[in-house]
Amino acid sequence: MNQSSPQSIHDIFAIWGSVSTMANDLGEKRDTVFRWKLRERIPEDAWGKIIERAAMRERLVTASDLLKVNKPMKKRGRPVIRKRRSNYRTA
Fold first, then answer.
1. What is the pLDDT of residues 35-58, one digit of tens each?
2. What is the pTM of this model?
3. How far is CA 52 from its chain centroid?
4. In this structure, what is the dihedral angle of CA atoms 63, 14, 5, 29, given to the nearest 10 degrees?
5. Is residue 3 pLDDT above 70, yes or no?
6. Is residue 53 domain-resident?
7. What are phi and psi of 24, to 5 degrees?
8. pLDDT for the residue numbered 6
């Protein structure tokens, strides 16, 4: 088994050679895996499959590796809208 630790998220994707191959191997939609690659982030619920399927390709990937190479998650949700102060005073 190849023991070199992935240095970037692209090293993880390189194990499969193409997004389509990776998607098929993981049982995910091609577009889903493509978005992971664009965002440079693989969701935690897919890590188990990534680790298992990489091992089947004789590549060692650990949860620690995935944690290291994943970009941080962006904030979600709508921005807070603050009420504007009124210039009018009420008596």
1. 999 999 999 999 999 999 999 999
2. 0.75
3. 17
4. 0
5. no
6. yes
7. -60, -45
8. 84
CATH number of the domain bearing residue 45? 1.10.260
CB–CB of 70/42 below 8 Å? yes
The one-letter amino acid code at 8 reads S
Distance, CA of 36 to CA of 41 (rounded, Å): 5
48's tokens: 């188990």
38 within some domain: yes
Q: How confident is the model at residue 86 (pLDDT cuts 50, 70, 90)?
A: low
Specify the number of domains making up the chain. Answer: 1
Tokens 């897919």 belong to 46
Distance (Å) of CA 61 to CA 23, 38, 39, 45, 86: 17, 20, 19, 15, 57
- Which residues span the domain enclosing 30? 9-69
Cα gap 89→5, rounded to integer Å: 64
